[in-house]
Amino acid sequence: MAVDRDHVLRCAAALLTRKSTATMDEVARAAGISRATLHRQFAGRDALVRALEALCIEECEAALDATRLDEGTAQEALRRLVKELERVAGLLAFLYTENQLFEGEGQNEGWARLDARMAALFRRGQEGGEFRIDLSPAWLTEALYGLMASGAWAVTEGRVAAKDFHYMIVELLLGGALRRE
User: Fold this and answer.
1) Which of 62, 65, 81, 135 is 20 to 30 Å from 71 at the Cα level?
2) What pTM value is reported for the model?
3) Reduced to 3 states, what is the DSSP secondary structure of residue 5?
4) Distances in Å between the alpha carbon of 37 and those of 8, 9, 10, 15?
5) How many CA atoms lie within 13 A of 77 on its CB side?
6) How large is the greatest C-alpha to C-alpha distance in the chain, in angstroms?
């Protein structure tokens, strides 16, 4: 029987976004396969995390494409972006804590592509007079990642209603990023 790698990754993502310390045994059970089968797909936790990273980057790039970042105001584009990223927020939250992904020479270039596209949105908002210019686009991008991760954790823990995710992220970010007269 062939193992559906995408199914295994999605099961792993669902589990690890709820329980970041899950073992490989728990991941295998969640995917409905044996630990040995899981290890044939992913040599260890690091390989699994790297595969989840690639999946997350792919899904974030798809969300950025769907957002149409150049249409309308930067604020409108940011609202659309948060809505599109909401489905991957839990995985982003998990990966946000995986420090090995962001250290050294092995950093995935996909993060730089995502950062550049998001920073361009914030830069457009600054140039159009919508966003504060004293906060760098790089900082606003990091703030967005941080808010997405925090929001995902709060929803997962039941401290915040899932229906409020989009509103909370956008309002807090824009509340601090908008240029005031």
Assistant:
1) 135
2) 0.86
3) helix
4) 10, 13, 16, 17
5) 20
6) 64
- With beta carbons less than 8 A apart as the criterion, state whether 120 and 138 touch: no
The DSSP 8-state label assigned to residue 100 in this structure reads G
Nearest to 118 by CA among 156, 84, 90, 161: 84
> Token pair for residue 34?
């044996």
Instruction: Spell out the per-residue pLDDT of the chain, length 181, in tens.
Output: 567 888 999 899 888 888 888 999 999 999 999 999 999 999 999 899 989 999 999 999 999 999 999 999 999 999 999 999 999 998 888 888 776 666 767 677 888 899 999 999 999 999 999 999 999 999 999 999 999 999 998 998 899 999 999 999 999 999 887 777 6
Q: Which residue do the tokens 């927020």 mark?
A: 89
List 178's β-bridge partners, or say none.
131
Could you give the angle at the alpha carbon of 83 between the alpha carbons of 129 and 20, nearest 5°? 120
